Amino acid sequence: MMRPFSMHLDFKTGELLPHDRTNIRKLSDMRGMFLDTDAELRILEKEDPIIYSFSERVLPEENGHLQLATTKISPGKVGDEYFMTKGHYHRRPDTSEVYLGLEGKGCLLIQTEKGDLESIDMGPGILAYIPPYWGHRMVNTGSTPFIFFAVYPGDAGHNYGDIERTGFAKILVERNGKPLLIDNPKWKRG
């Protein structure tokens, strides 16, 4: 039987203490996920920037438990598309998730496999509920790191493959200094 515990969450840095692991996603880990593959190659010829990182406490991946994590998305763009997380559905699709914005500016993209898409502007103190059967991706639309906290069922799991294959129906790009959702010409209906 697991014992109760407490953790410290720094709202400014997203540091979760103690945490068991930090996973880092660089641009090379997300090849082909951004629309402008030429811009992606130009960046990778010079550097391999960190797009985002997430820290988590390793907890049982089983019913009755909750997973706890923080994510920090770097500011930046590939072409005119903002840095983002890979995005995922849950391996157990009937599970939900909650995101809480801690620092910076972002946008949560949420979509069904059929391509119904919603977006929620995120910032400090904004809490977003992601219902079952909706894939989700977070985008940094600001000039500083965007940091958020996530809670989801222990047995939800992650299904990154479907989004790697199909993409999202829309992407978030910068137009005239502001974020704009546009149709993703690479999107394939699930």
Please explain how this structure is put together.
The chain is mainly beta. It is built from two helices and 15 strands. The protein has helices at about 35-45, 160-165, and strands at about 10, 15, 20-25, 50-55, 65-75, 75-80, 80, 95-105, 105-110, 115-120, 125-130, 135-140, 145-155, 170-175, 180-185. It has a six-stranded antiparallel sheet with strand order 3-4-5-13-8-11, with no helix packed on it. Strands 10-9-12 form a three-stranded antiparallel sheet, with no helix packed on it. The longest helix has 10 residues, at about 35-45. The radius of gyration is 16 Å and the shape is globular.
Give me the CATH fold name.
Jelly Rolls
Rg, Å, rounded: 16 Å
Tell me the domain tally: 1
- Main pleated sheet: 6 strands, antiparallel
Task: Give average pLDDT, whole number.
Answer: 95
Could you say which structural class the secondary elements and strand pairing correspond to?
A: mainly beta
> What's the count of strands?
15
**Helix and strand succession?**
EEEHEEEEEEEEEEHEE
Q: How many individual helices?
A: 2
Helix proportion range? under 10%
Main CATH class:
Mainly Beta
Weakly predicted, low-confidence segments: none
Distance between the termini: 40 Å
Strand order, sheet with most strands:
3-4-5-13-8-11
Task: Name a few traits of the molecule.
190 residues, Jelly Rolls, 6-stranded antiparallel β-sheet, 15 strands
Brief digest:
This protein has helices spanning 37-46, 161-166; strands at residues 8-9, 16-17, 21-26, 50-56, 66-73, 77-78, 81-82, 97-103, 106-111, 117-122, 127-130, 135-140, 146-153, 170-175, 178-183. The chain is mainly beta.
